[in-house]
Amino acid sequence: MPKICEYLNCKQRASYGMFYGIPLRCKTHKETMKKQYSICYCGKAQPSYNILGEIRAKFCASCKTDNMIDMIHQKCVCGKSQPSFNNFGETKALYCASCKTETMIDVRHSMCYCGKSIPCFNVIGETKATHCLLCKTESMVNVMSKKCQCGKAQPTFNEPHLTSPICCSECRTDTMINVKDKKCKCGISQPTYNEPTESLPICCILCKTNTMINIRDKDRKCVCGKSRPSFNHPGETKPTHCSLCKLPDMVDIVNKKCFCGKSSPSFNEIGGKPIFCASCKTETMVNVRDKKCHCGKALPSFNLAGETTAKYCQSCKTDDMINVRDTHRKCVCGKARPSFCNLGETIATHCTCCKTDTMADIVHKRCFCNKSIPVFNEPGESKPTHCSVCKTDTMINIVNHKCKCDKAIPSFNEPGETRAICCVNCKTETMVNVKDKMCPGYAEYDCPYQRVGNHKYKHYCTECFRREFPLDPLTFGLHRKNKEITVRDYINSIFDGFVHDRTLETSHCDCTIRRRIDHRKLIGNTLLAIETDENQHKSYDTMDEETRYDDLFMAHSGKWIYIRFNPDKYIDKSGKSKNPNIATRLEVLKTEIEKQIKRIETNQNEDLVERIYLYFDRYD
Fold it and tell me: What is the pTM of this model?
């Protein structure tokens, strides 16, 4: 007997409810209820599954058992995907993209007039798309995808309590968040990883456990199972091989190429789509692919801490800005980009300074000798395999293109050009160095020497760097003096009261001794002595060194603190030879001097004589 609606005195037949097969209300009084057979037993989703042989779906994807099948959505003959293709003239789709033949077309989706792509564009005011991206006219807009209020990009952001996106990344306010894309539990990145048996990603690459795999891209891997494929035979639409596994006759069918077929396009006239690479572009073309900094000269990488969109380049950034483009690609020290990790791992975690002895460089490919980065291969090949030591006589440098003379690497071209075409011997009088960054000069003056900037000195030449940064630790290493004087000048620029390279004479001492100390300062009853010991004074006799200590103590019978500073090579605890630059060593020396002065002033130095060795053998 049909069940009657439970709403007050309603006499209508009930057909809506909260769970499968349990009607409670009629259509008039249903409120938020759904049809009794259009909801799963769990009451949360529409049913699509049931046991083979049944005629009505009763279970959703979450409630279904392993022996159930999808009864709502028709499958291709392969039983894996929904069909969209059939022969021309047919209306019912029978095959998916993987199973279709060359003569089949998409009969499920309306196509553009060209018959190749699904349309997304039409004139403003129309709601039905008629043209694809390649066939659209200049007056047409995307009528399929909802746009931000700026009309340029699809919206992704809104206030935290709202679910419908209304703003793009450029137009969003500070309080808005990404409400379109699901986030990992860390709240920073989109999830891609989960256990192999799961189908829904829950963790990002940083939060994943060792047992998790990339389940979003597991069906889009190369035949090797390691990389995402981009290559297949010409005419195919589905990539099957990565760059390492591709066959000789395969081409890249994923990434669009310039007309030259060598590089990805980034250039076109203002307002157009990228169709030319940097080598093929004309003089009037600009980079329309990558967003520029507001100065219009460089790509942005910097913004305030907490922001995720880069808006400023290296030249335009302020002091409180950080590199937000590479925040997830930093070493554990947070200072450099990582290149090293343990053998067997695929993600670099440590830079060259922080790496351990068991780690290997997985970012830069090595030659077969595993010592150098390869740049040589046979003519016609595109992948370098050998370094300069291992290369054969027939191999050439395929990484760095040569000048037209085929003898040297080019660095020169006409002003305004970015690609070097001539070497120093072949360049014309009007050509300038467009490859190397030139020294910017000092103060308000251009570099009087027109030299190439040295990256070790902030891209200044040594002469301009000395004038622009007179107190920088690197400047003291530029002086054409011996290392002891370099240390002296650095100490004088920071500390007061030091006496340098003078005999230590007092009223009660034996003046026939006349011992000298490189740098000394008397603080109370303690004499702080800094000795610059080139090559650790290994050539000095040990007994003579001890006799020198005794003679100096006779001249000053108070407390002593010696800081022995080696500016040359040394062997660390692991047995490796180390030779840090002088600027790094002087910073460490400064810290040690400040530490000892504080100890002396607070009477923490209790021993009569203390010796501190900086950059000596077995120094950590």
Answer: 0.32
Nearest-angstrom CA–CA distance, 192 and 141: 32
- Res. 322: pLDDT tops 80: yes
From 413, 401, 418, select the one nearest 298 (Cα to Cα): 418
In a domain, 381, yes or no: no
246 lies in some domain: no
Q: Which of 446, 530, 441 is nearest to 487 (CA)?
A: 530
User: Would you say how long the chain is, in residues?
Assistant: 620
Question: Does the residue 166 lie in any domain?
Answer: no
Q: CA-CA distance, 166 to 158, in Å (whole number)?
A: 6
Percent of the chain with pLDDT over 90: 9
- Residue 374 is assigned to a structural domain of this protein: no
Longest dimension (CA), the chain: 127
CA distance linking residue 507 with residue 51, whole number of Å:
108
Note down the domain range covering 563: 482-614
Instruction: Give me 605's structure tokens.
Output: 């130095």
Task: Confirm if 476 and 489 have CB atoms less than 8 A apart.
Answer: yes
Q: Which amino acid is at 185?
A: K
Our count of domains for the chain comes to 2
The whole-angstrom separation of Cα 202 and Cα 184 is: 6
The rounded distance, in Å, linking the Cα atoms of 376 and 97 is: 41
Please report the pLDDT score of residue 594 as a whole number: 94
Does residue 2 carry a pLDDT above 60? yes
Q: 599 in helix, strand or coil?
A: helix
State the pLDDT confidence band at 103, using cuts at 50, 70 and 90: confident
Sign of the Cα pseudo-torsion (386, 388, 392, 393, in order): positive
